[in-house]
UniProtKB/TrEMBL annotation, chain B:
InterPro entries: BP-dependent_transpt_permease, MetI-like, MetI-like_sf
Membrane topology recorded in Swiss-Prot or TrEMBL: Multi-pass membrane protein
Protein name, UniProt field: ABC transporter permease
Gene Ontology CC: plasma membrane
Length: 335, 335
């Protein structure tokens, strides 16, 4: 891994972050009637009073959104970026009347938990299935698994969630219908709490994990290509065990080209939390965003967008770093 | 080359004349183009069950959205008894919802909107991706390539779903075409990168190099050599993009983030889900039939893209060309 490559990646992440902040600021400006008008109606309907002088209103808007409509646009923008970057100040929520960052930080770990759960589940399964189907190409096992993967790819993950709720939570009650932990379970490091935690997260994680199963098909494609390579044939001629060929020769070399897919996959799984958390009423960041949409809580909405981006960027950056450790080719052919 | 204009013309003529075959008439060329671009794929497609089945299901939905809309009346409240069970009466084969609207009529009247969304989204994202990809592939190494690819990478890494949710929450698009365009925002960057890498690899081919040395204008090279090779990718990705747009639009309607203006499968699911259809068996069909529609439509698109892939993917085709005969006799093939 060259320092230049690292710097390039870091720069790209920072640039993306700034673009997102700019988009968020731009959306404040682009709101129907402009930010002042849009906020004014919301604030007035919140406070219940009709008579409020314009200065006080502007102060309120600045407090909530970090955008002061009095100033020229470029000053507004610079102040907005400064507040987000330097002070991690994303404004205040209209409805909960609390700092957006506080609200998000309370929910964030829960979303990360189910996303990582889903990511690990989905990708490890699809890597294993991809290699196995390639190795047994054209067998009944291959066509069976491939058909199931194609069918799974045709079902939106939220529908998988609904179906899981119906069969595993309502009909059979193996799993809870929603929420994070069972009621009356003492919080702390005790087995009951842990089991409840995992059980509540299982169904959301499985339904998000469905997103990752499409990787099985590209894994299969990569592995099939590698099967034709000379070194695999040499390994077969040397009489190496099938398992060793499958894991070390096929698996290892076929995972590497999936680099980009993983990176985008992390972000994809994480942001799917918005829909999944609403379906499972799992109070994470996604549900927070959903509530913000429903209540037209714009500062909270923009705040969740910025944090979603920041998390995805961090995840991708970390994946980048670790990836070039696994695959020496990455740092070489990256131009 | 003092006068490139005449030089290129002469060289092109020379090239055409010096080839073994005699110059063909327009008719012959047209016939060959049709054979190459339509008949040959159709022939291979008829071998591929995935393309056939996918095409057939898609055709049913197209019929639903065109003929079906004309045949079946737009449902209104009180058309039929409330919450009739499915498969009981001919007038409402799929049963009715809590407002007494027949389910099948709602499903049918939702299809035109879905197709409008898919059309707008696919055209915008595939078109944009093709332009960006071809341009930056051809200007490889120049500043415009760097700028375009940085932009693409930025959009790739911004989490798509949260961004779309914020945008739709603020602008509340009601027109299906507009919804499609918004949903297309995060669908183009992946394809743009694929197109670019394709252009890069085609550029390296000896025949393109030869054309360049001969001084054939760039636009001709683009049209003749590059675009014809790119069409398969564009088509396959059009199908994949369409599936994503269905997933996202139905998901956003299901969550209730997009305004309910027309019939939509997601709206039906939302109303059923909010009415606790999962725990009330008499309401379950209200939820199940739209889910089936989404599944079938996206299943057809996935099958189609898979089938097209085996048609167009030269590597796969070459690999399987000599195995198709063996398949018939069911000999197990090994590499």
């Amino acid at each position: 891994m060259t320092p230049r490559y690292l710097l390039k990646r870091l720069g790209q992440a920072l640039l993306t972050f700034f673009v997102t902040i700019t988009v968020s600021f731009g959306l404040y400006q682009a709101m129907p009637g402009g930010p002042t008008e849009a906020m004014k109606s919301v604030i007035l309907s919140q406070s219940g009073s009709t008579g409020m002088d314009i200065d006080r209103l502007n102060t309120l808007i600045q407090l909530y959104t970090n955008v002061n409509p009095d100033q020229p646009v470029h000053v507004q923008y610079l102040n907005y970026v400064r507040d987000v970057v330097l002070y991690q100040d994303l404004g205040r929520s209209f409805f909960k009347n609390e700092k957006v960052t506080t609200l998000i930080l309370q929910r964030l770990p829960w979303s990360m938990f189910i996303s990582l759960y889903a990511f690990a589940l989905g990708y490890s399964l699809s890597i294993i299935l991809g290699v196995l189907t390639a190795y047994k190409e054209k067998s009944r096992f291959d066509s069976g698994v491939s058909s199931v993967v194609i069918a799974l790819n045709s079902i939106p993950y939220y529908i998988v969630g609904v179906v899981l709720i119906y069969f595993l939570a309502i009909e059979q009650s193996y799993f809870p219908v929603g929420g994070r932990i069972g009621s009356g379970v003492p919080v702390g490091y005790n087995p009951d709490f842990m089991i409840s935690l995992v059980k509540h997260a299982a169904l959301p994680a499985i339904s998000m994990g469905v997103l990752a199963t499409s990787a099985a098909l590209s894994m299969r494609g990569n592995a099939i290509r590698i099967l034709g390579e000379d070194y695999v044939r040499v390994a077969q001629l040397r009489g190496l065990r099938d398992t060793r060929i499958a894991t070390q020769y096929l698996g290892h070399n076929a995972i590497l080209p999936m680099y980009t897919q993983f990176m985008i996959g992390i972000a994809g799984v994480f942001s799917s939390a918005v829909i999944v958390e609403e379906v499972f009423s799992y109070p994470g960041m996604g549900l927070l965003m959903f509530e913000a949409v429903k209540t037209q809580d714009y500062p909270l909405l923009m705040g969740t967008l910025i944090v979603f981006t920041a998390i995805s960027l961090t995840a991708i950056f970390v994946a980048d770093l670790t990836y070039s450790l696994i695959d020496p080719r990455i740092s070489v052919d990256e131009s | 080359m003092s006068n490139p204009e005449s030089d290129t013309f002469d060289l092109q003529n020379l090239y055409d004349e010096s080839s073994d075959h005699e110059p063909e008439s327009r008719k012959v060329r047209l016939k060959r183009a049709i054979d190459l671009n339509a008949l040959a794929p159709a022939r291979v497609a008829s071998d591929d069950w995935r393309a056939l089945l996918g095409g057939a299901i898609l055709a049913v939905f197209v019929l639903m959205g065109t003929v079906g809309v004309a045949l079946v009346d737009k449902p209104t409240s009180g058309d039929a008894p409330v919450l009739a069970a499915p498969f009981q009466a001919l007038a409402y084969p799929f049963g009715t919802d809590v407002f007494g609207q027949p389910i099948h009529a709602q499903l049918i009247h939702a299809t035109p909107g879905i197709f409008k969304m898919i059309f707008a989204g696919a055209v915008v994202s595939v078109g944009f991706a093709a332009v960006v990809g071809v341009l930056s592939g051809f200007k490889h190494g120049e500043r415009i390539d760097t700028i375009l690819m940085t932009f693409t990478d930025v959009v790739i890494t911004i989490p798509g779903l949260p961004l779309i949710i914020v945008i739709t929450a603020i602008f509340q698009p009601e027109n299906p075409y507009l919804v499609g365009v918004f949903l297309g925002i995060d669908n183009w960057p992946g394809l743009a990168r694929t197109v670019r890498s394709q252009v890069l690899s085609i550029r390296e081919e000896s025949y393109v190099e030869a054309s360049e040395i001969m001084g054939i204008p760039l636009s001709t090279i683009l049209r003749r050599d590059i675009l014809s090779q790119l069409m398969p990718y564009v088509m396959i990705n059009g199908a994949i993009t369409s599936r994503r747009i269905i997933f996202e639009s139905v998901g956003l309607y299901f969550l209730g983030i997009l305004p309910f203006t027309t019939f939509n499968w997601g709206v039906m699911m939302n109303l059923a889900y909010e009415g606790n259809a999962l725990t009330r068996p008499e309401m379950l069909h209200w939820m199940v039939f739209p889910m089936l529609c989404i599944f079938l439509l996206s299943f057809s698109l996935v099958l189609l893209s898979q089938g097209l892939d085996s048609l167009f993917n030269v590597r796969l085709r070459a690999r399987h060309a000599n195995t198709t005969k063996k398949d018939a006799s069911h000999t197990s093939q090994s590499d």
